[in-house]
Amino acid sequence: MLVWILFLLCQVGAPALAQDLCQRDAPNGYKVRISLKTALGEDAYEWNQSEIFFFRATMAFAMRRHFQIETYNVDNIILCVQTSRVSFWFVVTSPDNATMLIPKAEVEKAVRISRHRINNAFLLSDRTLEFLGIHPTLAVPVNPDTPPWLIVFGVVIGAVCAGIIALLVSSLLQKRRKEKGMTEDGQDEEDMQVKGVENGINLDGTYNRGFTDNDRFTKL
Amino acid sequence: MGKDAARPEWDNPMQFVLACVSYAVGLGNVWRFPYLCQMHGGGGFLIPYMLMLVLLGVPLFYMELAIGQKMRLGSIGAWRAISPYLGGVGLASVVTSMYLCLYYNVINAWSFWYLFHSFQSVLPWAECPVNSNLTSPVEECERATPTQYFFYRETLDISGSIEENGGIHMGQALCLLLAWIIVYLFIVKGVKSTGKVVYFTATFPYLVLIIYLIRGVTLHGAINGMKYMFTPKMEQLANPTTWINAATQIFFSLGLGFGSLIAFASYNQYNNNFEKQAIIVSMVNSSTSIFASIVTFSIYGFKATFNYESCLERVRLLLLNTFDLAEDTISLENVNHWIAELNRTHPDQFASLGGRLETCDLEAELDTAVEGTGLAFIVYSEAIKNMPVSQLWSVLYFIMLLLLGMGSMLGNVIAVITPLSDLKFISRYMSTKTLNGLVCLFCLLLGLGFTTRSGNYWFTMFNDYGATFSLLFIVLIEVITVCYIYGIKRFEKDVEDMLGHRLNWYWKIMLAGVSPILLIALFIFYIVNYIQGGTPTYQAWNKELGKSVVTEYPPYAQAFIGLLLASSVCCIPLSTLYTYCKKRNLASGKRERTVSTVSA
């Protein structure tokens, strides 16, 4: 009889006790914020009791994975302060003693280990399923051996240097060909650049700046 | 026509026009004009701008082309031929061009750096890099923005002030080397190679600008920027600074006084119709400025709208999270309505938000007008990283910057090389190729100083003081020399000789009257501004705060500024003195000799 009364009390008292364990700003609890519409837009599912059950089951899984024991159950995860934002607080009770809470650090470790699984279970990401206080680890930056800019630089400078060398060599060859042409003919008759060549003698004159070629403008 | 026939020439007049366009249309059209437009009343700024173009820009441009084409020599030889006492004007131009060559190519080096870094899946200035513990982004990047961090830390590795020197940034040095090698490639064969290159450097930037225009106006929020820019604020016209800035912009945008135009024109045919070309090039330059500012402002509008909407999104999330409301209660449109509502219904909780609640203001975002390297490398890259397929737009944009910069560099380098190669004692010992190579090498070695950790501060000093004041002085002396010492009548006859018709009354009035008066006014303004401004200051990047702070130049830096200004300006009086002394010695020497012959 006494046992039966105690049992009844436990059934009534347990939820009340659970309420005391889980509250806003609980020392061993975490606040979770879920942004379904941001993550999924049109395909967002409704956050209802079944989803809450799923969350509790996922957290129990995370605790099992972390402690490597299979005693954690859905009842060990207690939720409270649920809002329409979709945010709530949760605490984790020990499977051996329903009044004892698992410390915050252990819960954090468990969440970190299984974060990827938890996110995928809900089709969310680190940004849309937030555990306030547990910062996601940032991706390792990729550090290639040769920075890619150096490769592009090498290609461009190689092409430019090749261009310069080609230009210089071609002008050198041209000059040598012209010299050979001049020594063979003796007199380069096609070279019209040096005007003032008369009777085979170069006249070295200076340009008279006072001279203006007005003939074109004179009306004859 | 003796040795002048051996002077190289442009293959056709089109090359000359494109060379002038390529030189005049430079980075200033893209990063200075839109800023001025915004500062001085949007569409209304076009009135002083166009007026100054007609009164100041076109006549001076015409004058420089006429001198170059007539004398067929670089700036030193040309001015010595005009007036033997004022050969120093040419020398001053060469000195100023040399300063410009030293620091201008550093901008091209930065463009190369950004261009090469665009070939990555994620643009490096899009996100902050993580710190060594992998816990959070690098602190300096958090306090500033990723684009600022990339520019100041990864590109420049800037130190805290001009006094703190550091080592050379290897990446920058390599890019500078590449820039100078490409310049050498363009000028190695003189006008023959330059003439072919300008077909590309003059036209391709327009192609990119058109592509960007189409992309820009189709961006979300572009219309906000364009509306902001083109709404004329006529009251700005009453502000004298507007007119002075318009005049200065026209003046520097056309590249007057450096000797590049004289050098380009010296390779012309004697009877080339430079009058038509002068008008065409000036018009093209101004239209490009306006065109580029349309593109700039559509991109500004996009960036401002993007930032504004991100701000609204952050505020929305903050409200949702603090008050635990369902996600779809607050949307971007009714954020402000909800702020008022929540303030009314939950005042205590609202007060607990405190400083975290940002005010989002589109006007304030648009008001952040920036000019210069800050616009080109920080603001633009920030806008580009938010565009879809950002790598493509980034590559296109930096190629355009490179072409604009390279085109202007060609003019700068030719302004130095042409007068040097005209000097007899140089042309006797070296071929043009060797001379070009030596000049490029010399500029490269000195330019490495701008790639050190404090290099950007020296760059800013050169940019602000190296070529501004001296140019005004040089061009003022040029105009006075041509109109009053050489004589406007002789100038008229020379022009008639080349073109076949007399100088129009417009040119005569502008050159002899209006332009000198405007130049004197600008000159006086600069002096007054400099004296009133107190100690010159610069923007130093503070890595703790993550922003630039105004710092004064140390005394030795101020002395260096004085040296920069004096070194080019003093060439004129010193050379006059030198010529005067030489003539006196020559005259007295002749008298002695005559006496001795008679006595003997």
From TrEMBL, chain A:
Where does this protein reside within or beyond the cell? Cell membrane
Name listed for the protein in its UniProt record: Collectrin, amino acid transport regulator
Q: What is its main location?
A: membrane
> Carries keyword Transmembrane helix?
yes
Q: How does it sit in the membrane?
A: Single-pass type I membrane protein
- Gene Ontology terms, cellular component aspect? extracellular exosome; plasma membrane
Q: Which residues form a coiled coil?
A: none
Signal peptide per UniProt? 1-18
What Pfam families does the record tag this protein with?
Collectrin
Instruction: Enumerate the spans annotated as Collectrin-like domain.
Output: 26-220
In its UniProt record, which GO terms are filed under biological process?
positive regulation of amino acid transport
Instruction: Please give the InterPro entries that the UniProt record associates with this protein.
Output: Collectrin (IPR042944), Collectrin_dom (IPR031588)
Q: Which UniProt keywords apply?
A: Cell membrane, Glycoprotein, Membrane, Phosphoprotein, Signal, Transmembrane, Transmembrane helix
**Keyword match rRNA-binding:** no
Highest taxon of the source?
A: Eukaryota
From TrEMBL, chain B:
The record's PROSITE patterns line, in alphabetical order, gives: NA_NEUROTRAN_SYMP_1, NA_NEUROTRAN_SYMP_3
* Membrane topology according to the record: Multi-pass membrane protein
Provide the transmembrane region boundaries: 12-31, 43-63, 84-106, 168-187, 199-223, 243-267, 279-300, 395-417, 438-459, 465-488, 509-528, 556-581
Q: Which GO terms describe its cellular component?
A: apical plasma membrane
Matches recorded under InterPro entries: Na/ntran_symport, Neutral_aa_SLC6, SNS_sf
Q: Which family does it belong to?
A: Belongs to the sodium:neurotransmitter symporter (SNF) (TC 2.A.22) family.
Q: Could you tell me what this protein is called? A: Transporter
User: What organism does the record attribute this protein to?
Assistant: Hucho hucho
